[in-house]
């Protein structure tokens, strides 16, 4: 099982991912660690990333997800995954780019239930406050609006579990554990 913790910057992805990873005993892959240096420098200057900037980063994370899936391992991956296309790239790699350029197709078929997105969502003001109070992160609070502007909340067909960030990390982790138990007790995995 792979859980991809997603949402805008400042929503608590890294903290929740680390907590969940430790609680489940699964490896954690922090998406920020996979950004090319140019992306980090651009965000530190207060410049939003473009789709072109994000592509190599998303493809690297796709490789990590595929490696874990192919080995049958469980893992937690932290990645903003703001757009549907970004989530498709995480799941399907460069095939998603070819598929998305076809006007007849909007989305690739859902991946098997061994990959789920955990969508951490909350309102702009709450997240902006969190970002203003954090120290040492290259992503500045001024860039939050650009993240909300490009955010395409995941649809049900994208294997998503939505988690409201007003809840405690412990409560959200308990919901994920219930999700895992529910999947394991299902007679047939989709």
UniProtKB/TrEMBL annotation:
Metabolic or biological pathway, per its Swiss-Prot or TrEMBL entry: Carbohydrate acid metabolism; D-gluconate degradation
Keyword Nucleotide-binding: yes
Matching CDD domains: GntK
Protein name: Gluconokinase
Superkingdom of origin organism: Eukaryota
Keyword terms of this UniProt record: ATP-binding, Kinase, Nucleotide-binding, Transferase
Membership in a protein family: Belongs to the gluconokinase GntK/GntV family.
Molecular-function GO term, any one: gluconokinase activity
Listed PANTHER family: GLUCONOKINASE-RELATED
Organism for this UniProt entry: Seriola lalandi dorsalis
InterPro entries in the record: P-loop_NTPase, Therm_gnt_kin
């Amino acid at each position: 099982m792979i859980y991809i913790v997603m949402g805008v910057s400042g929503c608590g992805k890294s903290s929740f991912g680390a907590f969940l990873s430790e609680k489940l005993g699964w490896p954690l892959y922090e998406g920020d660690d996979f950004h090319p240096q140019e992306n980090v420098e651009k965000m530190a200057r207060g410049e939003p990333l473009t789709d072109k900037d994000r592509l190599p980063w998303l493809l690297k994370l796709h490789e990590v997800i595929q490696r874990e899936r192919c080995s049958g391992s469980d893992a937690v991956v932290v990645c903003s995954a703001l757009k549907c296309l970004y989530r498709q790239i995480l799941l399907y790699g460069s095939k998603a780019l070819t598929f998305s350029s076809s006007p007849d197709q909007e989305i690739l078929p859902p991946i098997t239930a061994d990959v789920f997105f955990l969508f951490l969502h909350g309102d702009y003001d709450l997240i902006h406050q969190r970002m203003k109070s954090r120290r040492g992160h290259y992503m500045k609070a001024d860039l939050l609006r650009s993240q909300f502007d490009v955010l395409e909340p995941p649809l049900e067909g994208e294997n998503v579990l939505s988690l409201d960030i007003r809840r405690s990390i412990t409560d959200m982790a308990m919901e994920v554990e219930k999700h895992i138990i529910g999947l394991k007790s299902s007679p047939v995995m989709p």
